[in-house]
Amino acid sequence: MVGKQRGFTLIELMVVLVIVGIASAAVSLSIKPDPLKMLREDGERLVQLLQLAQAEARSDGRPITWRWDAKGFGFTRRADQGAGLDRFENDSQLHPRRWQSPSMAVRVEPRKRVVMNAEWIGEPVQIRLSDGQNSLTVQRSAAGRVQLQ
């Protein structure tokens, strides 16, 4: 008497692999990005760009103002020969950017414009970023050191 062979056919293995692939794709598509991670990335990027704008203002001698709204932020300064504002649209680093967090609220203490200038000592500033659930603070010291807290 010949014994029956046991095991899976190639078709059965392929069907199982296709089902596992579809299930893993569905799970990966349903995972939403972590809001705290996006907020932290926004904060880290802002720290780097504020430091860069401060260095640019010190080397150029013209103050640079940081401007923001719920959608994004950018930097401005007076253009050469006073011909309007330079918004850094063609600058590879200080160009206007969008927040990664979908709903961003910004609060600056003290309540005034954030300006980087050629001075080495300035007024400390706290920038509070909030996405509605989480918040963090970007702090600029009087000596111009910018850090995320």
Automatic annotation (TrEMBL):
Keyword Metal-binding included in the entry's annotation: no
Biological processes per GO annotation: protein secretion by the type II secretion system
SUPFAM superfamilies referenced in this protein's UniProt entry, alphabetically: Pili subunits (SSF54523)
Residue intervals passing through the bilayer: 6-31
Entries under PROSITE patterns matching the protein: PROKAR_NTER_METHYL (PS00409)
Entry similarity comment: Belongs to the GSP H family.
Name the record gives this protein: Type II secretion system protein H
Source organism: Pseudomonas frederiksbergensis
